[in-house]
Specification:
Elements: E1 10-14, E2 19-21, H1 22-26, E3 31-35, E4 38-44, H2 45-52, E5 60-64, E6 69-72, H3 74-77, E7 82-88, E8 91-92, E9 101-104, E10 115-120, H4 122-128
Parallel strand pairs: 1-10
Antiparallel strand pairs: 1-2, 3-4, 4-7, 5-6, 5-10, 7-8, 7-9
């Protein structure tokens, strides 16, 4: 099992009552992809959102431990190459990269280390402070 997002081991999805625990994430289908010469293992972002009952037809912001946000469009949320990674090269992510990382292999500018929160809908633009991608 892995810890995600914060010390409680949960991925918090603001704008909804959802917080997925590490146990819930490990029950979802596993996805792997290659990014910057490494193999990342995790869960597709769209699968996480579906499990939490969150629609992917509105923007969302991924926020890291330093409170930096990346605004994600609905098209990005549906991508096959957008995962919440918990491992790289068959080992858990190091502390400076995880415990959870957003990896979008086809759009490296959207990849985000040390993910702590996903913000949904109307709150997303205010949380990000960046242009939608």
């Amino acid at each position: 099992m892995f810890a995600c997002g914060d010390t409680s081991g949960a991925v918090h999805i603001t704008g909804t009552p959802a917080a997925l625990t590490s146990a819930e994430l490990t029950e979802l289908p596993t996805a792997t992809l290659t990014y910057e010469g490494h193999t990342y293992t995790g869960v597709r972002l769209r699968d996480v959102l579906a499990h939490a009952g969150v629609a992917t037809d509105q923007p969302m912001t991924a926020v890291d431990a330093d409170n930096h946000g990346e605004l994600l469009t609905p098209a990005t949320l549906q991508r096959d190459d957008a995962i919440l990674a918990y491992a790289v090269d068959d080992a858990l992510l190091r502390a400076d990269e995880g415990p959870l990382r957003l990896v979008v292999a086809g759009a490296p500018d959207l990849s985000l280390k040390r993910l702590v929160r996903l913000t949904v809908g109307g709150e997303a633009a205010a949380a990000a402070g960046t242009a939608a991608r």
